[in-house]
Amino acid sequence: MNTLKVVISSTRPGRVGLPVGRWVAETAAAHGAFRVEVADLAELALPLLDEPHHPRLGQYMHEHTRHWSALVDAADAFVFVTPEYNHGPAASLLNAISYLYHEWHYKPVGFVSYGGAGGGLRAVQAVKPVLTRLSMMPIPAGVAIHYIKRQVIDDVFTPSPPQHAATAAMLDELDRWTEALRSLRERPPPGPADHPPGGDPVPA
User: What residue ranges of the chain have pLDDT lower than 70?
Assistant: First the structure.
């Protein structure tokens, strides 16, 4: 069975992303197509990117990076649960993405976004180009939660029927894309020699 990693992106105290993430994980487990695991970026507490080498080399110097690498590498697909901050995604999500390279390749990702009137959709659109650069497949189906605080009472998220239906459709699509990309994921990643000079610079 394929492994789906639900990534809770917000790290703010009192975040509503935690009850939303729990609901997504429970719904995905009930869906039955995946083995479901949760990665909470608040618990992982990754520092601002502190690796000296380009992530494509896999020469990780810190234990927190090796741990994050193992979690992402073991997943076949993802759901990112993300808020919208100033028309963009949480900085913690972008930071977590930037730590790794090959571990993300050829894996589909769905989004459950939340916010005010926009439902977090601008955050999703902002992060998609970053993911495609990492050879991920952001699927079209997703879930947008508008005016999120109306649906979180006593730290419990209560979805609407349309949100339940949208989540089921997203999980169906993730299952299809996960199988479609399997052959690419099973190929060994290219070595550093396969990346000619002139590509992205090594981060300073």
Answer: 189-204
